[in-house]
Design brief:
Length: about 300
């Protein structure tokens, strides 16, 4: 592994180990994070892990919640899990085989998840590479799926959460877009954020746009999150964003090169505050300082979600 000569005692990740591509949500009174298991060459892991917390500081590891080899059509490279809740079920959208997207279903947010039986997006269905799904649930209960590397795609999911109309897919290329599109909403404002550069580069970073709807049109606003060389924090990207329910407190989850000697295959998770400024735009995130502690108001007892 490479060394990070700038490391100056930055505090460790609250989730020990190599993980990446965190998807954060608040589910049944707990923070829920689904993540890629990292630490193998070329991101060769086959399974996703789930973690829950009531405060972002102390986490319960629920182990592997889905292995893509359980899907008859997939064989490995389990990347970038995304989560949604609907129809009394829990849905895990995932990348497999470096360029397909599938969806698995569970009765509990921490699984076990069962594959739906076929890829939701197969190689060649749309421009670019079919990786990095994300789901945005609008306030009216309509779910949108986003994905893509090189080209971003967005579409309204059908009520079954397992399909969409291909003719409805909107495709575009945000500024310097690489991958990991994410949409959140505050009031009537929509925000699209995405990762720029390569996850193996110390300059991997997050940019964002604002929009009037879940599928745009989008107006580029600039950098949201980038490395902090002073603290030795590098390659900050593939993020997700959630609010503490009933508040205007926002959290951004992302990965970075693990400290002190990580790289693009040895990444770790981190959480920071996300602030919407008085003008409604996002303030650039400053990574990272002391570990973030943001208790949920009505956290469920430890051990259950
Ligand atoms: O974790 C594997 C890949 O690395 C993801 O699909 C990309 O977004 C990048 O984080």
């Amino acid at each position: 592994m490479g060394s990070q000569s700038g490391w100056r005692g930055e505090t460790p990740s609250p989730i020990a180990g190599y993980f990446a591509d965190p998807n954060i949500d608040v589910v049944d009174g707990r923070y829920l994070v689904l993540a890629t298991t990292d630490g193998s060459p070329e991101w060769g892991s086959t399974a996703f892990r789930a973690f829950t917390s009531s405060d972002l500081r102390t986490w319960q590891d629920h182990g592997e919640v889905f292995d893509v080899r359980f899907a008859a059509w997939a064989s490995g490279h389990a990347w970038a899990p995304a989560y949604a809740q609907a129809n009394g079920k829990h849905y895990l959208y995932f990348t497999a085989d470096r360029g397909s997207i599938g969806v698995a279903v569970a009765d509990e947010p921490t699984g076990p998840y069962i594959d739906s039986g076929r890829p939701l997006v197969a190689p060649g269905d749309f421009d670019g590479v079919a990786i990095d799904p994300a789901v945005f649930m609008d306030t009216d209960g309509t779910a949108y799926l986003y994905w893509g590397n090189g080209t971003a795609h967005g579409v309204r999911l059908a009520p079954d959460m397992l399909s969409f109309a291909p003719a409805d897919v909107v495709s575009w290329v945000p500024e310097n877009f690489r991958e990991a599109a994410w949409v959140h909403r505050r009031g009537t404002d929509y925000f699209l954020s995405w990762s720029v550069d390569d996850t193996r580069s110390e300059d991997y970073q997050v940019h964002y746009s604002t929009g009037a709807g879940p599928l745009g049109p989008w107006h580029y606003q600039g950098v949201l999150l980038r490395k902090n060389v002073e603290r030795g924090i590098l390659a900050t990207g593939h993020h997700s964003i959630t609010a503490v329910p009933g508040t205007d407190h926002w959290v951004i989850a992302y990965h970075r090169f693990a400290l002190p000697e990580g790289n693009g295959y040895h990444r770790e998770l981190r959480f920071d505050r996300l602030h919407h400024g008085p003008d409604g735009l996002l303030e650039q995130v400053v990574p990272s300082g002391p570990p973030l502690c943001l208790p949920l108001p009505d956290a469920a007892p430890a051990g259950r979600v």
